[in-house]
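Appendix B. One record, verbatim.
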Amino acid sequence: MKARELIDAGEIGKPTQMRQRFGAWIERTGALDDDREVTDQVRGWRMDSSKAGGAGFPWMFDHCVHFFATAEYLMNDAKIKEVYFLKSDIAWMNDETQYEIDHAEMNIYQPEKAGDIPVMTWTYDDPACQGIWTRAEALNGKYDPMYGFSLSVIGDKGMIEVLGEGGKGLQWQGKDVHLVLHRKDKETLTFRFDEGGDDIWQSEVSYYSKAHTNQIHEFVDALTSGSTPRYTGHNGRRDIQTTMAAICSAKEGVAVKVAEVTDERFNRQ
């Protein structure tokens, strides 16, 4: 929300590029009860597309709606036009790498049998704008010192770097920060939002502890007051359609326009 406030204030000029980063998600020790171990009844179902949706790519169906919602929100609500997924062969992984995957936190998000998807790109209706998402963590045999979700928004007058869910590791001049505002010919500013950390993740931001609570309160307030929520059902449907386009791209190996996605194409083997 602070990043959007700075963008709306013109601090980075016209935003034209989005760089999203997906790193390791590390749970806090003792954060989850024993009955929340990864089993088919608890969290394992999220990797079964017959139960979780996704036409063979359940983790994409689970996660991508959030990436795309953020990609449009921080691009002044510009709509994503076309998406393209790049696959990576995981056959090179040795026994040591496979051991790390098998014993990693959040191992329900192991690479797809058809191969890992470490990079996706997209364009917007505004031809000046584009975005890229990269995934590097133990579960796909890669290393990145940054935890969780983080991103950069680049404009013609500056750039914003900000942590998201599970995020940790963003620094400026040796200090841990939550948001960095770089401005052309101006002083760099940094921000921290010390809300007590997170109940679930070893994170610098309070996602489950604050963001989820705020989200539910905002929605309930909209219902009781008759106002329009900040994120509507139309927004949700749009992000699901964009995610369906991404899954079609992963299956077909081509760029896919959001407007051209149909149920028939999505469910095609």
